[in-house]
Amino acid sequence: MSYIGSGPTVAEIRAAVDHIVVSPGFRHSPQLVSFLRFVVDTTLAGKATSIKSYSVGIEALGRREDFDPDSDPIVRVEAGRLRRALVCYYAGEGAGHPIVVEIPLGHYVPMFYYRKYPYLASKLATIVGRQPIRLIDVWTRSYLHKWVGNLGRRDTSGAS
């Protein structure tokens, strides 16, 4: 769930989304942009409960009225692509951005929150992104990209 009152403001969220959709991972994918904007706008309008596979297929992905999400996996496929694109964005260009937009696995309703350590994530992304890395091998680089992308995410384990 998104707790807009305790997290980023609507204006901050909209600005973050505007920055995301012009990034390289989204710029050439109108379906990802449409999906992201639809779920964010619907959530910010207070209608998060109406975000279902059918509504995403019709409203965001341009499917016809007879769209059947049980037989056409397009919404699930695009949701997976969107999640991966957001992880790549926050591990790269968006590493230093303080506001995170996340689509939790198994849901289409986005979460919005402040990143705990945006400066640290930005610095790590810069280090990991450097081409001539002498101390970090290829496996470690990909591991660090994933780690930087997850840096500052909420701890869902319940531990303090």
3D structure, described in words:
The protein is mainly alpha-helical. The chain has one domain (4-150). 51% of the residues lie in helices and 5% in strands. The chain contains seven helices and two strands. Strands 1-2 form a two-stranded antiparallel sheet. α6 (118-129) packs antiparallel against α7 (138-150). The longest helix is centred in the middle third of the chain and has 18 residues, at 74-91. The radius of gyration is 17 Å and the shape is globular. It starts with 9 loop residues before the first helix and ends in a 10-residue tail after the last helix.
List the helices and strands and how they pair.
Layout: H1 10-21, H2 24-27, H3 30-44, H4 53-60, H5 74-91, E1 99-102, E2 111-114, H6 118-129, H7 138-150
Antiparallel strand pairs: 1-2
Helix pairs in contact: 1-3, 3-5, 5-7, 6-7
Summarize this entry quickly.
The chain is mostly helical and 160 residues long. The chain has helices spanning 10-21, 24-27, 30-44, 53-60, 74-91, 118-129, 138-150, and strands spanning 99-102, 111-114.
Describe the largest sheet.
2 strands, antiparallel
The domain tally reads 1
Distance between the termini: 19 Å
Rounded Rg: 17 Å
Order of helices and strands: HHHHHEEHH
Q: Which secondary-structure class do the elements indicate?
A: mainly alpha
Total beta strands? 2
Percent range for β-strand residues: 5-15%
**Residue-averaged pLDDT:** 80
**Shape summary:** globular
- Residues in helices, as a percent range: 40-55%
Order of strands, main sheet, comes to 1-2
Low-confidence stretches: 1-5, 131-139, 156-160
Total of helices:
7
